[in-house]
């Protein structure tokens, strides 16, 4: 979903980031309309002071936006898209934000895009409702994605000949060094890695990977099964409640608590997952190797949605 780059707006009502409550798992919230900005094609971006809605970040669009609605006096407005926006003091940038989320001097906001903005005027109280099934499936996919990246790092540890930066478990951080794209899917994810000259110079033994791929996949899946069996707690730590504040995924794995910076949504315990498995595919592409990791995260009976909480 693309929009005109910038829109001059009255920023007197915006002095801080949108307060986001989805890190707590919230599926409902109440907020006040601050901006209702037409963005073309008959659509309007609605900015609230507070929301439970997770919006896609255009800088690293790994997790899709929530589905859901905005309600005013019994009138329900479907949200057709939700993107991170930013305000520089004069203009609202919707989706095409020219700076990274959290940049000092900017206010970062959730833009709820609707096709019918009747009644959604500044100062109006609004109820936000998020689709629990999609949220749960994306949260499972995102939690599974982080676990899979840690398992992949550990399974590839023997293919490094030099010291490189380590992940939270002390394994060479292949995921961070090689990733080119990550997509969170309902109940899974797809991560793409490029293994070229730069990674080889850092000490990654790319020539050995093809012959070791089945062993690496089996080792990663064995680790994942062991971690899920612990039912470890998952949480999101954050510096503050604003959209632009740093947020960190935490999981209490058997060998210690692991942290990964993350702005997405997650489950609260590994007991909510029946299984997480990875499938690895390697092929040549433009003078380099491309490794794709497909992760499947299956919810357990404990993974049913909790009742929405209003905030």
Mean pLDDT: 93
- Number of domains as seen in the coordinates: 2
Dominant shape: elongated
Give a count of the beta strands, DSSP E runs of length 2 or more: 17
Classify the helix fraction into a percent range.
Answer: 10-25%
CATH architecture of the largest domain: 2-Layer Sandwich
Describe the structure.
The protein is α+β, with helices and mostly antiparallel strands and 311 residues long. The chain folds into two domains: 12-130, Elongation Factor Tu (Ef-tu), domain 3 (Beta Barrel); 134-303, 2-Layer Sandwich (Threonyl-tRNA Synthetase, Chain A, domain 2), CATH 3.30.980.10. The chain is 18% helix and 39% strand. It contains four helices and 17 strands. It has helices at 132-155, 174-178, 197-201, 209-229; strands spanning 6-8, 19-20, 28-40, 43-48, 50-51, 68-72, 75-87, 91-94, 107-114, 125-130, 179-185, 188-195, 234-238, 247-253, 256-261, 273-285, 288-299. The chain has a six-stranded antiparallel barrel with strand order 3-4-9-7-6-10. It has a four-stranded antiparallel β-sheet with strand order 11-12-17-16. The protein has a three-stranded antiparallel β-sheet with strand order 13-14-15, with no helix packed on it. A hairpin with a 2-residue loop joins strand 6 (68-72) and strand 7 (75-87). Helix 1 (132-155) packs across helix 4. It is elongated, with a radius of gyration of 21 Å. The two termini are 29 Å apart. The model is unreliable at 305-311 (pLDDT under 50).
